[in-house]
Amino acid sequence: MLNIIFEDNHLIVCLKPAGILSQKDYTGQDSMVELVKDYLRVKYQKPGNIYLGLVHRLDRNTEGLMVFAKTSKAAARLSKDIQKHDFNKNYYALVCGKLKDSGILVNNLSKDEAQNKSFVSNQGKEAVLEYKVIEKVKDISLVDVNLITGRHHQIRVQFSYIGCPLYGDVKYGAKSLNKDFLALYAYDLRFFHPVTKAEMRFSVVPKGKIWDNFFKLTTK
User: How high is the pLDDT of residue 68?
Assistant: First the structure.
């Protein structure tokens, strides 16, 4: 069942659980696009094809907030804002290893389509993020990440590159206790409404698994 955070005539914001694709791929497995379309089809009793604009993506095992456009006009305007960096996304990440309390990571990233992985290279596109450590427990840090650019697997690659892979991210060098859990959560979205131009902000706190242990520490 979809967890809808906000909906109007132009947008729909919902929580994506881990294990669900953002967009349908060759596997034919469930995706957020198809799930949201089904929700709209039933709610508004719309037969036939339904338009839904995929504005941004989250990795399959990343949880958190996603916004979809219900009209092509809204999709175009939000996509333009993303290109201008007027669409802001913050993530919580659990990062392994020794990490400075805050910093800015800047690298060029290239994508290997065959392996569905990205890596740091001199030929790639610039990737920039800011981070701040909120809490540390042994060798794991709860980190607030402000994603400046939106490259493929960016947060995962950049932290792995400095020797601090995300907890559970075996693809980029971490040990995992659960193959379906990636310690990355899109908890905050800030953007301007594509029609009214009102400032929109949505924020949630991760629940379950090891997230609860860290957030109990930060609220003491």
Answer: 98
Taking CA atoms, 113 is separated from 83, 118, 119, 145, in Å, by 22, 8, 11, 25
Which of 38, 33, 35 lies closest to 53 in space, CA to CA? 33
Q: Please identify which of the residues 59, 81, 86, 112 carries the catalytic annotation.
A: 59
The rounded distance, in Å, linking the Cα atoms of 136 and 130 is: 18
- Known active-site residue 59: yes
How high is the pLDDT of residue 25? 74
Along the chain (220 residues), what's the average pLDDT of each consecutive run of 10 residues?
94 94 79 95 89 94 95 96 93 93 96 92 93 92 94 96 92 74 92 97 87 69
Question: Tell me, what's the pLDDT at 179?
Answer: 61
Number of Cβ within a 10 Å radius of residue 105: 18
